[in-house]
C-alpha cells in the first residue's frame, strides 16, 4: 500500500475519477516509468515491457513470499502468492485467469507464475529428502512440458514471434504442505487451419521448422525430407519459411530433452516426427483430371505419406480420391471432384495434426499426473488452475475462429463480473455493510445470443449443417440467422438493418459484444462448423500399423454402415468445452491477470494510445474498477490499518490502551474529521473516496521523518550503551586476568625462592620463570631488587674490617 511512493496510483480503484481517460493516463504514466503492473483490487493489470526486467529474481521472490497484496508494490508474484496462500491455508482450489490479446504477455505471465510457485515450494526438504526429489521432479516436468507444447502449439505470427495458437488451462495439484505433486492440461481450439495455410509473413507451427534444422541426417532420411523447407507447400506460403537455423536447432534439442524427461518413449518420438513429416508430404500431394476421372499427380509424396503413417498406399489413394456414402441404405463409393479432393486432403492434414497435438497433450498429462501410489487419497490435495487463453480479437476480416474466441471472452468476462460481484457482496454481508446496487454490463444476453438452445447462433448453424449437404450454403445460413435473430439488440445484418451500409449484403453479420461491435464474414462458417473429415480417412488411420496412430483415431473402428452418424460440430464442441471450463472455474477462488500490449512494434518505450485504449475496453477494465469499487475505494482490516496509521494521532501513538483496534481506528478518523467518509464493518474499515486515503498517507509521510529520526536516535543510543557495557566488561575481564596471572607468577617465585636465604649461592642457580607479558616490567624490577638483595647478602658475609687490612 505504499501508494504515495508509487508512480500515479498502484491500484486503479484509487483513481479520483473512474473513466477511460483517467485509466489511460495512469497506465501510461506507470509504463513510462517502468511500472508494468497495476492492480484493480486483486486483479493485476500487466503491460508487456518488451524488455528483460530485473524484477523476477530470488530477491523479489523473498520480498513477495507470504506477504499480503498491499504490503508491496504491485507485482504478478503477489497474485501468484495470494493464490498459493489461499490454496494452502484454506485448502481451497484457486485459479489464475490470464487474458489479453496476442503478444500481450499471457504465456510469459503463466511461466512467471509457475516459476514463482516452484521457487516458494518444497522448502522444508531437509526433513524429507526423498519427498523433495519427487517434488523437484514434478516441478521440472511441469516446467519442461512448456517447451513441447510451444513446439507443437505455437507459431510465428505477425503479432508475436512465439504465439500460442491454442487456449491452455493447466491445473497444478499440491499436497497438504502446499508442494506441487502433479498437474493436468486442457487445451482449447488449436488453430489447425495454420497447418495448411499461413498469412504472408507468418509461419506454420514451430515443429515444422525445428525438424529441418535439428533432426540428424539419418532421421531426415527416414522421414524422406531434405533440409530445405521451401520444397514443401504447407510451410512455404507464409514467405516466412526461412528457418531461423540457430533458434530452431536449439529448440529442437530442447524439445527432444523435454520429450525424454516426460517419458516419451523412442517409439513415441518416432511416431511424432513421422506424423509431422507425413503432413509435410501430404501438402505436396496434387490432383489432376484425366478423361473426367480424378487422378493423383505422379510423384513420391503419396508413397511417403503412406509409409510414414504406416497405412496401405492403395487405401490412402482411395481415401484421397473418393468417399463412401450411404444412399437409401446402400453403401456406395463416390469419386471426388478436384476441389473436393483438395479440400479433403487439407482437412485430412489439419485433422491429423489436431489429433497429434491432442495425443501429445495426453502423453504430457500421463507424465505429470499425480502419482496415486505416492499421494494416497487420504492426503487432501488442492490445486491452482492457470488459464492462458486468447483475448478478444477484432480483425479487418473476422471469421468463425474469431467468433469462437470472442464468445469465449464474453463468457469469461461474464464469469469475472459475477464472481467479483459475489465476492464483494459476501464481504459486505460479512462486515454488516449495506450493499449498494451498481449498474453493470450483463454479458449473459450476448452469451445467450451465441449459445442458447434452438435460437442461439451455434444452434442455428448446427441445424443448417444437418440439412442435406449439397443444398446448404453460407448465404442460407445467414438467412436463417436473420430470421431467428431479427430484432435482437446485439445482432444485425444488412438484411435486418438495410441502412447499415458498412455491412455487406448476404455476407456480413454484426454482433455487439461487451467490448464493442464486431463484424463477421459468414463465408466459411458452415464448413468450419461442420469440420468434415471423410470417414474413410478415420478408418485409414485406425488401420495404421503404428499403434500410436491407431490410438489417435478410435472412431475409425466404426463399421462402414455407421457413417451417417454425424459427429458434433466444431461450434457445439467449443460451446461445450467453454461451458465446462466456466463451471470448473466457478468453483474456484479466482485471481486475474489482464495483459496489455503497449504497441505493435515490440518496442520497450512506445505506448500506442489508441491500441491500448481499445484493449482496455475489450478487457472491460474500467467496468472492473467500477464493480470493484462499488461505493468504497478502499477497505482494510482494523489491525493492519492501525499499524500503518497509528502514528498520526497522539491517542494511538505509540499504543492505544483504551479499547479495541476498531476503537483506535475510530479515534484516528474522528480526530482527522474523516468520519463522514467511512463505514465501520465488523473487521474492516471501508473508505469511500481515495482522497481520504491520500490524506492519511500524507499525514503519515509527514510524520515518518520525525519517527525515523527518533527511531535512529533511540537505536544509536541503545547501540552505544551496549558497546559501553561490553567495553566495561572487557576491561574487568582484562583486570581479573592480569591479577590472576600475577598471583600465579608470584606464587611460583615464592616456591622457588622460599629457601633462598639458606642456599649457598643465594639463589643464583634458580631459573626464573618467564613472566606473563603484562608483568614484564614488574618482573624486571623484582629481578633488580633480588640482585641487590643478593649482593647485600654476599657483602654481609664479609667482615667489615677485613677490607681495611
Ligand atoms: N514480463 C515480460 N518481460 C519481458 N518480456 C516480456 C514479458 N511479457 C512478454 N514479453 C515479451 O513479449 C513477447 C510476447 O509475449 P507472450 O508470448 O507471452 O504473449 P501472448 O499474450 O502469450 O501471445 P499469444 O496469444 O500470441 O500467445 C514475449 O516473447 C516476450 O518477448
Automatic annotation (TrEMBL):
It is a peripheral membrane protein. Pfam families: IQ, Myosin_head. PROSITE patterns: IQ, MYOSIN_MOTOR. The keyword ATP-binding applies. Its main location: membrane. It is found in: Cell membrane. This is Myosin motor domain-containing protein. It comes from Acanthoscelides obtectus.
